[in-house]
Amino acid sequence: MPTTTIDRGAYFTSLPQPYYLSPSLYEEELELIWGRQWLLAGHVSQIPAPGDFFTFEIARESLILIRGDDGEVHALYNVCRHRGFRICDPTQGGHMKRILCPYHAWQYGRDGELLHAPKHADGDPFAYADYGLHEAAVEVWQGFIFVHLSDDPLPSIGAELAAADESMGVLQPERMKIVKTIEYPCAANWKLLMENELECYHCAPSHPELCNTLSLAEMHAHHNEWGPDRPYFYSWMPLKNGAKSLTMDGETVVRKPFGEYAEGREVPEGFASGFLVQPTCTFAMFYVDHGITAKLIPNAVGEATLVGDWFVHEDAVEGVDYDLDELVGLWDITHRQDIELANRQQLGIASRKYAPGPDSKRYEPGIESALNLYLEMVGDVSGLLDLPG
Amino acid sequence: MPTTTIDRGAYFTSLPQPYYLSPSLYEEELELIWGRQWLLAGHVSQIPAPGDFFTFEIARESLILIRGDDGEVHALYNVCRHRGFRICDPTQGGHMKRILCPYHAWQYGRDGELLHAPKHADGDPFAYADYGLHEAAVEVWQGFIFVHLSDDPLPSIGAELAAADESMGVLQPERMKIVKTIEYPCAANWKLLMENELECYHCAPSHPELCNTLSLAEMHAHHNEWGPDRPYFYSWMPLKNGAKSLTMDGETVVRKPFGEYAEGREVPEGFASGFLVQPTCTFAMFYVDHGITAKLIPNAVGEATLVGDWFVHEDAVEGVDYDLDELVGLWDITHRQDIELANRQQLGIASRKYAPGPDSKRYEPGIESALNLYLEMVGDVSGLLDLPG
Amino acid sequence: MPTTTIDRGAYFTSLPQPYYLSPSLYEEELELIWGRQWLLAGHVSQIPAPGDFFTFEIARESLILIRGDDGEVHALYNVCRHRGFRICDPTQGGHMKRILCPYHAWQYGRDGELLHAPKHADGDPFAYADYGLHEAAVEVWQGFIFVHLSDDPLPSIGAELAAADESMGVLQPERMKIVKTIEYPCAANWKLLMENELECYHCAPSHPELCNTLSLAEMHAHHNEWGPDRPYFYSWMPLKNGAKSLTMDGETVVRKPFGEYAEGREVPEGFASGFLVQPTCTFAMFYVDHGITAKLIPNAVGEATLVGDWFVHEDAVEGVDYDLDELVGLWDITHRQDIELANRQQLGIASRKYAPGPDSKRYEPGIESALNLYLEMVGDVSGLLDLPG
To answer: Can you give the C-alpha Rg of chain A in angstroms?
Structure first.
């Protein structure tokens, strides 16, 4: 049987087989990893006015992201306090005057407080104040809505990403909009997509389109500068000399640039911004004209969904300022390539002959950083390394 | 993590999360609940003559319901005594001279006795008498065929439902026929459908069509009259004033009334009859012109099938005495609504923030009755409250 | 609950319920049975020249069967030594100059040696010689490629099947080709297909087409001659008097006979050859004009795939020497019948009333032989007889 021991005498390696196959470990990860990090849920442009909402599904939870009467974004657990009904359907989204559970018509305010439990008014002596919707922590940074599921507070995501403030701020991300969302189902453990994202060793063989305009040398250098193993990074994908945007040909794909660049500010050579969250594998890559975010959603030990969003200036008009297929083109093909890679790696890892091999110190340091963080977060999981069956 | 403790200090509540999600508990329930109750299998009109049969699938079992040469209904385990072959395909049904296993051609009589094991006659010395098909307990009450899977006897279902004898008897249910069967797949634990069935608190928000003719006030009163926590009830759904049948508009949907009402007997104002089995969630609701039964079939911890049957007088002719769409209309939409409710509740119950909330003493007493019975039947299951993973 | 004890006081029987339903036992079987037998992977005609390859998937493994530069057939684990990628897609096949992992472009030679790990050349000090692809044992007998997954050697398959050398050799099997492959998915435990294959008690009731030309009497006699419980057999399916080939009507279906029979050698009355592997249920049945192999591939405790291949002379031309539908006809229908039998038996075995019944000493001795071997191979599995849930 393949080993379960992590042996890094000579080389840094990925993880032994059971880390990618154990259902019990996966369940623990939902709590210890996914339940204890800031997760990118969406963007303020999705809910501009009080009562606007969307839902965010992750780690068996569903949150209602709603702008409250107080003007703030609230993240409410999508679970009625009466008998646990999932109040809003994930396909829903839009505007609500009140949050109405369709099962027994319990009504909640936009800030989550219980307003009315029909017929209980007849005499059941319980206090409405005790039965508001549970609320998750939420923080908006540069227009991006982050949430976390932990009952303990986490350090501010804005403080964590302060290094990205300047370059992102110039883009005025709160004045962007999402014009395309694609969900990519993946038949692999989420950590394989995470590892994939954190090295560009595979970019030349696997992503020819991306390599048209991505500077591989600077990308590798960037990965080597990360330093200590921490979860939140100011990160970007560097452009080749002369490229203006990370696109098929290096030209911009949206006529209307973002933020201050729309007002005449000079664009620095090779401008790029973004951020990265590990090990939960969320990243944002922004250029002068467009940007993308990619979120990983774990579904089961061997299943995940990659959710890709494409951003343009809030005033950009499809067919006038950009062509949607052209906008989406590069990352759509890149995401599909990565999913296919993860799917096939998952198959190989199930082999009795799989053992983690030597990772390149120079070209795969991102994996080392993320896995060290991962191992620190999960702690001793030796009792959970069972395989299915 | 959500609690596993049942705390009813202040209120009656539904069950903690693991009761709806634990695969181990589900397996035990098949034995302790589904294996120890009378289950509605079908109706005598399906097998009028010796050799007529149908199959009934439940709790990983398949029974052959066959009218024997003795004129009685037999419930034979659909498992060949040779090597376990499932003799009759569930899609089969009809008439058999003998029960022939298609694998090796072992032949059984209509009462289950082994008649011939080909080639064993050549000399293997085993006694045919020891290898008849296993038989399950069966009882016919008012034309409804009940079975149970327990090796121990259960009290007569007829005696349990004696209170319903008079009102059901007037309808002469053995002279009805089933004219439509629909299976509704459900992605929820079976107990959520059971709880759904046992309260009408949700009827106003969730079943507008049903509420056209159902008297909510009397329904709630009926639920409050149930008293002790027992499995079999004379039960009905009361009509609003002036309604003649539980239909979209309160009018009958079949011209030919049932039983003595076809012979001129005066119909009492708001006539309704039926019965209910809890916690296995089977019910029958009959009116002067038509009736329905609904059976719940558990398939897995988070999967069940609701099987709806529609009954009319045996002499009623489609297109003349009734329109099939009109007959089926109200309960088809009502069943679909309930399935959708259970599906979404199942999602919410998986949340780490789910905890059973206060049930209404006045409007949800049926849940208390069924869950008390359920908890008594399963006994101490604290060792089974594991979650998947 | 059904018994888990094997009781053969009076009769030989099949196995108790958990042997067919336990996921834990299934996992062990992959190691103790499927990991310790010669498995039929394919045929030399699939890879005539160096660099030709195909993949063989079994028991969660994937092997690359490739003809090396040394002219020999190699069975390489399809798992990159870097991060476990499944190098060749199962749908692939054809010709390779080098074995290239598409993820990070590690390159291996056709004999499995690591030739190049891009960028590691920059300085990571690990020895290429330690990172060649793992190799499985392979042996070619009469043109049939066998592999096994055990780290310990097994006795030569050629020696095991020596009794079949003469009759197979006359056919010159290395000069055959596969002209049709069909995969038959099955929703049953693999052992039910194995038992099915090893008795012809079911042939008369279940395979009317096969019984046109198969001599049942000689088949039963052949099964009774097997003697000791061993894994590899010279085996064949005997023809009825006057039949020339095992086909729908006893006539040959290919004009061009195999091997020496094409060169005028006289065909013995009722010529048949073949071999059988138990308990892993692989068999080959060859006649003067055509042959078939059938391989069983286990996928999960209740899922398997039967892979059927049809062979003709390497020079036979479709439409001239044979009609493909006619060639495939008999075994296609026979395989489908057996799959349907196993699927329905699997359902019956899940019943709480299932218990293994008396097997016929005269007509089912093959089951006894294979199950004795199986029980010896798995050893004490009493701790693994858990059921799902």
So the answer is: 22
Mutant choice from C347, C362, C386, C387 vs B, greatest count of B C-beta within 10 A? C347
Q: Are strands B176-186 and B303-313 parallel, antiparallel or unpaired?
A: antiparallel
**CA distances (Å), origin C75, targets A312, A347, B53, C61:** 52, 18, 55, 12
Residue of C nearest to A350 (CA): C60
Of residues C61, C103, C118, nearest to A351 (C-beta): C61
Q: What is the pLDDT of residues B220-264, one digit of tens each?
A: 999 888 777 899 999 999 999 999 999 999 999 999 999 999 999
The tally of CA atoms less than 13 A away on the side-chain side of residue A260 is: 11
Percent with pLDDT over 90 in chain B: 84
Among A351, A356, A358, beta carbon nearest to C77: A351
Query: Rounded to whole angstroms, how far apart are CA atoms B374 and B28?
Result: 12
CA distance B54 to B94: 7
For residue A226, what pLDDT is reported? 78
- Per-residue pLDDT reduced to its tens digit, A193-242: 999 999 999 999 999 999 999 999 999 999 888 777 899 999 999 999 99
Task: Return the C-alpha torsion angle A14, A17, A18, A23, nearest 10.
Answer: 100
Residue A175 burial by Cβ neighbours in a 10 Å radius (0-12, 13-18, 19+): middle
Check residue A216 and give its pLDDT: 94
In chain B, the residue whose alpha carbon lies closest to the alpha carbon of C367 is B83
Task: Select from B10, B14, B351 the Cβ nearest to the Cβ of A60.
Answer: B351
The torsion angle over the Cα atoms of residues B337, B343, B348 and B349, rounded to 10 degrees, is: 120
Partner-chain contact A103 B206, CB within 8 Å: yes
Give the count of alpha carbons within 13 A of B337, CB side only. 20
Choice between A126 and C277, residue whose per-residue pLDDT is larger: C277
HSE (side-chain half, CA atoms, 13 Å) at C170: 20
Instruction: Give the pLDDT score at A386.
Output: 73
pTM, full prediction: 0.93
Q: Which domains does chain B have, with CATH numbers?
A: 18-36+165-379 (3.90.380.10), 39-148 (2.102.10.10)
Q: Which residue of C has its CA nearest to B58?
A: C351
Q: How far apart are CA B78 and CA B88, in angstroms?
A: 7
Cβ(A360)–Cβ(A201) under 8 Å?
A: yes
What is the distance in angstroms between the Cα of B373 and the nearest Cα belonging to chain A? Answer: 19
Average pLDDT over chain C reads 93
B19 within 8 A of B375, measured Cβ to Cβ = no
- Interface confidence, given as ipTM, is 0.92
Residue B11 to residue A124, Cβ atoms within 8 A:
yes
Give the pLDDT mean for A106-123: 85
Structure tokens of A286? 């922004």
- DSSP letter for A133, please: P
Q: What does the block give as tokens for C187? A: 């929703």
pLDDT, tens digit, for every residue of C123-135? 666 889 999 999 9
What's the 3-state SS for B98-149?
CEECCCCCCEECCCCCEEECCCHHHCCCCCHHHHCCCEEEEEEECCEEEEEC
Give the pLDDT band of residue A388 (cuts 50, 70, 90).
low
- Distance (Å, whole) CA A353 – CA A356: 10
CA–CA distance, B93 with B181 (Å, rounded to integer): 14
Considering only the beta carbons, identify the residue of A10, A195, A206 that sits closest to C102.
Answer: A206
Chain B residues with beta carbon closer than 8 angstroms to that of A129: none
Chain C residues whose beta carbon lies within 8 Å of the beta carbon of residue A344: 85-86, 89, 103
For the CA atoms of B105, B110, B111, B114, the dihedral, rounded to the nearest 10 degrees, stands at -20
| C-alpha closest to that of C73 among C177, C176, C170, C144 | C144
Task: Work out how many CB contacts closer than 8 A connect A with C.
Answer: 94
